[in-house]
């Protein structure tokens, strides 16, 4: 009897221990720093980032395929020519620098421009700004003349520009530095030292190159660049192309607000000075780089401060 009782007590004891152990085990698990809702949030976040990563990867791959197909099947034939892609990249970089530089330049000089405008009006009668036709970059494609048969006669097709300026004409904007109608009696002529047509304020502005500030607008329009050969008047271009070797080659790039010839040679005053200017222009065109533009811009600051090379 006692043996049976002892056996029942032992079973109960083991059962109690087992229950207690299970309870303790459950309690221990329940005390771990992991809760049901927080674990679910972490899981959803991981799923979201994995899905986002997958979508981004798919879009990137799709874009790669599309652009690869466009490059292979849709690229212009000329882009495969030697140096063309580099030239296109350089033009893009130079244009980006022009837009940023001209925008910043206009914003910084607006107060100064307002003061100069008032002074110009007070100094002499006439408009504040002066516009003049200049010759820009030559983008014309030289093609053989084509003929069209009309009956028995041959007629040349007209060129897209009836008058050849050897570049794209545009109107340059400057502060007026001369008296009104300064060339009415003389026609287009170069400015010379102590030119009687130049006003008192105009002489100072030309010395400090302040009359060129409005040309930031020409740069934003795409007519000019920050750095490049100075734009010349059509009448001078027509004459000088016959007097100076390789003169028209300076029209292969956009004209500039400043340039190597401007900081080294100053204003034109004779054919001899134009020969020297063309030499500097061609040197700039052959050796162009972003850093060469930076160096020229820094030299321009020196010219503005010292008045070196001004007429």
* Contiguous uncertain segments of 5+ residues: 14-32, 142-161
Net shape: elongated
DSSP E strands, number? 6
H-E order:
HHHEEEEHHEHEHHH
Mean model confidence by pLDDT: 77
The assembly state of the depicted protein chains is: single chain
Secondary-structure class? mainly alpha
Query: Distance N terminus to C terminus?
Result: 134 Å
Share of residues in strands: 5-15%
Overall radius of gyration: 38 Å
Structure description:
The protein is mostly helical. It has a domain at 86-140 and 147-306. The protein contains 9 helices and 6 strands; from the N terminus they run αααββββααβαβααα. The strands form 3 sheets. It has a two-stranded antiparallel ribbon. A two-stranded antiparallel sheet has the order 2-3. A two-stranded parallel sheet has the order 5-6. α6 links the parallel β5 and β6. The chain is elongated and about 85 Å long. Mean pLDDT is 77; it is low at 14-32 and 142-161.
Characteristics:
56% helix, mainly alpha, two-stranded antiparallel sheet, 9 helices, elongated, 9% strand, 311 residues
Question: Layout of helices and strands, plus pairs?
Answer:
Blueprint: H1 2-30, H2 36-74, H3 84-123, E1 129-135, E2 147-150, E3 153-156, E4 169-175, H4 200-208, H5 215-221, E5 225-227, H6 234-243, E6 256-258, H7 260-265, H8 271-286, H9 290-306
Parallel strand pairs: 5-6
Antiparallel strand pairs: 1-4, 2-3
């Amino acid at each position: 009897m006692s043996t049976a009782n002892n056996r029942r007590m032992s079973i109960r004891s083991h059962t109690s221990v087992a229950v207690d152990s299970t309870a303790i085990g459950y309690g221990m698990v329940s005390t771990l720093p992991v809760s049901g809702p927080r674990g679910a949030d972490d899981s959803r976040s991981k799923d979201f980032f994995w899905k986002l990563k997958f979508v981004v990867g798919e879009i990137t791959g799709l874009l790669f395929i599309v652009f690869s197909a466009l490059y292979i099947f849709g690229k212009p034939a000329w882009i495969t020519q030697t140096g063309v892609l580099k030239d296109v990249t350089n033009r893009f970089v130079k244009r980006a620098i022009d837009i940023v530089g001209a925008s910043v330049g206009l914003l910084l000089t607006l107060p100064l421009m307002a003061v100069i405008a008032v002074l110009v009006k007070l100094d002499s009668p006439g408009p504040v700004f002066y516009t003049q036709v200049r010759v820009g970059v030559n983008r014309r494609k030289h093609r053989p003349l084509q003929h069209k048969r009309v009956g028995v006669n041959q007629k040349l097709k007209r060129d897209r520009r009836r008058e050849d300026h050897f570049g794209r004409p545009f109107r340059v904007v400057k502060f007026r530095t001369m008296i009104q109608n300064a060339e009415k009696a003389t026609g287009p002529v170069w400015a010379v030292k102590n030119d009687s047509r130049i006003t008192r304020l105009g002489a100072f502005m030309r010395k400090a190159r302040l009359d060129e500030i409005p040309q930031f607008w020409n740069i934003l329009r795409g007519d000019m660049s920050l750095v490049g050969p100075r734009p010349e008047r059509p009448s001078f271009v027509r004459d000088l192309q016959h007097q100076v070797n390789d003169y028209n080659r300076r029209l292969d790039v956009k004209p500039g607000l400043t340039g190597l010839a401007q900081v080294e040679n100053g204003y034109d005053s004779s054919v001899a000075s134009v020969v020297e200017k063309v030499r500097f222009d061609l040197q700039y065109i052959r050796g162009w780089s972003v850093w060469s533009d930076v160096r020229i811009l820094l030299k321009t600051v020196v010219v503005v401060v010292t008045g070196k090379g001004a007429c």
